[in-house]
Amino acid sequence: MPGVTLLHLDEANAPLVGTFAAQGDGSIPRAHAVWAARQHTAYYLTTEPEEVVDLLVPEKIHPIPTKDA
Question: Is 31 inside a domain boundary?
Fold first, then answer.
């Protein structure tokens, strides 16, 4: 089972991604990642968890440090 897969931003899912961009900060890459996390019930790893608190359930948001421990 692969751990990473490419999820295309195509005409079928672009309107849904656009919805998340409009609800968030307007970032298309972030909106695509939020869409993917919701679509696939995946975890969302980020250095900026505050940017997605209104878009994902807290259990799926996993902050990662910006510096090594």
Answer: yes
How many domains does the structure of the chain reveal?
Answer: 1
Per-residue confidence band for 2, with pLDDT thresholds at 50, 70 and 90: low
Q: Which domain holds residue 37?
A: 14-63
What is the SS3 assignment for 1?
coil
Please say whether the beta carbons of 37 and 31 come within 8 A. Answer: no
The torsion of the CA quartet 32, 35, 39, 43, rounded to 10 degrees, works out to 90
pLDDT of residue 68: 83
Q: What CA–CA distances, in Å, run from 27 to 1, 62, 67, 68?
A: 30, 19, 23, 26
d(CA 8, CA 36): 10
Identity of the amino acid at 6: L
**Do 35 and 13 form a contact (C-beta atoms < 8 A)?**
yes
